[in-house]
Amino acid sequence: MKLLKLILLLFCCTFATTGFSQKKEKLKIIYAGKGDANNKEGFTTFLRDNQQQVHFVHKGIDFYCDKAVYYSKQDFIEAFSNVRMIQGDTITMTANYTEYSGKTELAFARGNVVLTEPQTTLTTDKLHFDRIKQQAFYNTSGKVVRDSSGTITSKIGRYYIPTKKYQFVDSVVLVNPEYTLKTKRLDFFNDSGHAYIFGPSTITGENNKIYCERGFYDTQEDFGYFERNAKIDYDDREVKGDSMYFDRKLNFASATNNIVVTDTINESIAKGDYAEVWKAKDSLFITGRALAISVQEKDSIYLHSDTLMLTGPEEHRITRAFYNAKLYKTDLAGKADSIHADHKTGLTQMINLARYNSKDPFAIKRKPLLWNIDNQMSGDTIHLISNVETKQLDSLKVFYNAFLVSKDTISDDGFNQTKGKELIGLFKENELYNVDIIKNAEVIFYSRNDTGELIGINKSKSGSINIKISDNDIEEIRLINKVDGDLSPESMFPKNANRLRGFDWRGDERPNSVEDLFKDDPPLNLPIIKGLDDYVPPEDFFDEELRTRIDNAKPEDKTKENKAARNVPEKKTLEVDKKPDLKKKKSGN
């Protein structure tokens, strides 16, 4: 008899629902083990039996649960215990409790909520699901697990089913075996694994850490683009730039515009317009107004060229500067085709490129030059040796066609000149104090007394020459194995003999400041970076359209609760509405 009543009840519900569906499709009860109608309160309770759960459908979506309470007039159902909601063959949601309105097509689930689709699983404590917009929303913290991309957690989340896009807000964390991403906002596309990052963000891997305030990352291919205060921290290097690219598989990074690379171990900084970092090779390439700064407590060294390369591990780093390389510190300046500096040994080589041979009309202009105080040194190759402990100059060597020139302190066009096959100089506190010219030495020297009066001009040849320098003045010249030469009065010294063969004073080329390093460069013309689009806040999940649906679902009996509005938050009050009326306050009204 009870079974007959249940069958009749199910038949009546189905018949009533079918008849009404011609106007508007209502929830349809498919199966229940037991049903109990409460006509006074206007609801029917359905229970499962030992074989099946309660089953009802609405517009292609299936609900299963152990217990359901159905409010027929409001077309609203409450589902309890082991709830499952299945949409087609792609979306399944399970929860301890779910309620659903057939009028608004809005579902609310709570208690161990799990939303799954082919590639991801979303878990949260409370979830809203709008079937019309095909969107799911939570604001009580949630977690999304994706097989190939890791796990994403956030306080607020939203899933757009048609585009398979997740939007995470507030305390967003993506954990992957290779890295951890933390950001304020994250748009994640499920099919492609593309992630768009908004706000202060970090991506931390085993050997690197990325920071940006706007970025893109491909979680499947492991590469990304980063902007706005973007930087990458390696074990011993920090790379900054207006726009950055990073490939985790290649352990490669590049940066464009306003590049700053800081070497924390070797206390050096590199700048330029474009940079590449190959971490596995310990290699940095930088070009476009490239500048390397060896940071020292009192007097840093600046090295500029078209292109810079820094290679080698931290304990043995090498700097290469090529194409119009220039060197500057307050008491030292240099210029060469290329400069090679070994930070471990303290050896800096200033090199003249081989393509500039003696027959090249520009060769003499390309020879390496070195200025210390007022002394200009030149030759085919120059070696500077520094003390790696004190960071001060120790000595220098000039190989082949060595020339030492300084202006006479009084005369207009007089130059003290020394030349030979090689030159060896010694430094004390970064000042040149001893010079030896070796083999085929020649000298022209303006000899003056203590009052500065010119005694005569010495032009001599010898096997070698030793020069003592004090307070930037030549104190003594010793000719060793003198061949010939005399001290002649200025009046008897021929004008056409006041320059040694190969003389080339290039004092106007000397950099006298950091800015001077760039004076021969073409005008700065940085490429325009289009950049990634700004963050556009989405429409509120509980927008006007949804609230209109909820209002239209109100029961005819105004004393009854609108079930469809039960778990919908109140409409937000605009900030302008919250501000006090300053005019009234001021007037005292």
TrEMBL record:
Signal among keywords: yes
Keyword entries, A-Z: Signal
InterPro entries referenced in this protein's UniProt entry, alphabetically: LPS_export_LptA, OstA-like_N
Organic solvent tolerance-like N-terminal domain span: 51-183
Chain spans, region Disordered: 547-589
Biased composition (Basic and acidic residues): 547-580
Signal peptide per UniProt: 1-21
Domain of life: Bacteria
Coiled-coil regions, chain positions: none
Name this protein carries in UniProt: OstA-like protein
Natural source organism: Winogradskyella litorisediminis
